Amino acid sequence: MSYTKFEKARIIGARALQLAYGAPPLIKVPDGTIDPIDLAEMEFEKDVIPITILKS
Q1: Structural domain contains residue 52
Q2: Has residue 1 got a pLDDT over 90?
Q3: Of 1, 16, 17, 53, which has the most beta carbons under 10 Å away?
Q4: Mean pLDDT score, 24-40
Q5: 1 versus 41: which is more confidently predicted?
Q6: CATH of the domain at 14
Q7: Residues 6 or more apart from 38 whose CB is under 8 A from it?
Q8: Does residue 50 form part of some domain?
Q9: What is the dihedral of CA 5, 7, 11, 12, to 10 degrees?
Q10: Domains in the chain, number
């Protein structure tokens, strides 16, 4: 599915907030990665973020 830049930013931001508050990562965290935004972007690229956008 193709997302607009606004949808992508919202998904990554929401997931980064979850990670910052202690949610378990859904991918293997590479050594040295501690930034929740970087980790959320990696999860987004691998299409494992459990957030759905409904389009009407």
Answers
A1: no
A2: no
A3: 16
A4: 95
A5: 41
A6: 3.90.940.10
A7: none
A8: no
A9: 10
A10: 1
CA distance 1 to 26: 20
Among residues 29, 35, 30, which one has the least CA distance to residue 12?
35
Residue 28 gets which letter from DSSP? P
What is the per-residue pLDDT for 8?
A: 95
- Could you tell me the residue range of the domain that residue 10 belongs to? 5-45
Tokens, residue 42:
């990696």
Instruction: State the residue for tokens 């997931």.
Output: 15
Burial 38-47 (b: 16+ CB within 10 A, else e): bbbebbbeee
Contact (CB, 8 A) for 17 and 2 = no
Interior angle at CA 31, CA 28 and CA 33, nearest 5:
85
- State the sign of the Cα–Cα–Cα–Cα dihedral 33, 39, 43, 46: negative
